[in-house]
Amino acid sequence: MIKHRAIVFLSVLAIVLGVAGGFVAPLLMKLIGFITNLSFYGRISSDFSSPAENHLGAWVILIPALGGIVVGIMARWGSRAIRGHGIPEAMEQVLEGNSRIPARITFLKPISAAFAIGTGGPFGAEGPIIATGGALGSVFGQALSTTGAERKTLLAAGAAAGMAATFGSPVSAVLLAVELLLFEFRARSIIPVALAAGVAAGIRIKLMGAAAIFAMPEFAPVSLNALALYAVLGVIIGVISVGVTRIVYWIEDMFEHLPVHWMWWPAIGGLAVGVVGYFAPRTLGVGYDNIGDILSNRFSLHLIAFLCVMKFVSWSISLSSGTSGGTLAPLFTIGSGAGATLGALFLWILPASGVDIRVAALVGMAAIFAGASRALLASVVFAFETTHQTNGLLPLLVGCTLAFLVARMLMQNSIMTEKIARRGLKIPEDYDADVFLQTTVSAAMDKELKPLPSDMLVSALADRIARRDPEVSVRDAWPLVNADHQLAGIITRNDIVRSMDKAGAHNLKLSEAGSSELVTVFPDETVHEAVARMLTHGIGRLIVVSRSDPKQMIGYVSRTHLLSTKFRQVQNEQVREDGWIKKRSIK
To answer: What's this model's pTM, rounded to 2 decimal places?
Structure first.
């Protein structure tokens, strides 16, 4: 009942976060639009507009640099935590900071991102919104009485709400939270996160409509031949995702060697953005319209290739400089462009293959996300939710899975985890069911241990241990029972040693040398609960008692017994058994 109350409590808070995320996302977009209009067009308006239509000429080079200066100042005297993608910083707080994010990040991150993106930074607004939502969830958790696990859930709920409010993709937002923030799949976390994402997406529909953010024409179900080529595309995109990740962090390492304070790095990155933007104006700003045009095959291949290369140059340098920005939208642009180009190549080589350039672009967009972030399921569902293309699910599943596989084989960490892995943090990759939660105490306990009479002399027990009596010599503790065979206490080897220093030790009874304060466990409780009880009381053993009669001993568990359940799981995963097709040795 207590657990259910906690879930309901978190769910209520998550709904509040969903409402907040639903309104924060459009507010940030309006702030970005205001700064964009003021910076590139000299007008006062919060309508979202692209910097690509500006007529500033060479002066456009300076605007992103000015935005970088603002971000550098905010990072230097506000909080250094505003630098970077947003998601890796949230992951670090979950893994090391007990899900505690400073309250000032809730307004410093979106404001700094608005300046970075509004002055032409080649980032999407989703990263800062996700980070802001996560920070808001963490602040909720710190303001109220919560556990570390509950704060993590609220942080993830806020992040999922931010993503759902930006893209109208609540299911992929939940999956992203599971794969990158929660590191678990449990009711206590999934329910609040799902509610936050659902509420945020509902508010987005109310404010902005239910249309797909990357709307594209309908396409037919894929053929088997085309599916095979989309699989090849996924493999190639997986290699590209690793290359993108390595280059980004290589450039970041180069910035570390600059002879200037890190506060000025975003300005230097901004200059690179301005130079690229002068020659390729479409690289400036979030570029959601570019993604939609590529997916709908409205660009020529030459324009797609040029845009993707220039977007990558601009984004990789700017992001590596430590400015405030995200990774998703640039990756989607690069991936969709690479997918469209490869699709056109496949179609040129095999005209009858049935490859659709639009599907290839869609697979490329999701596959580079899967390979770079390692969020496989989120990538597949995201592409579906943002395009509403049901026929794309099959090629998406195949392409993203192969991209994920290739990227994992070629590089241990992802674009989200490389930075925090360099700081020595171990990032969970596999989410196994906790064997301690699946195993009951009855399956791990020792049923053979016989209790000792409480009026037995300590000297008699010590003598049996010295004679290596098999019934007692292999134990380190013994339950005690009274004349009615009811539990009366417990005695350990340490108790025996300490009692030897007392006067009249040879006449001391076990009940006098041991302890009458028993910590017990029921056979139908989980091993997880038993371990928690041992840690809470600082002991290494528990007596298993009957629920109907707590004074009746039915078993005994030690740390060794409990750890043996994990050992059995390891054996089940690593020990291969001969199959019914016997292997024959080659002579």
So the answer is: 0.82
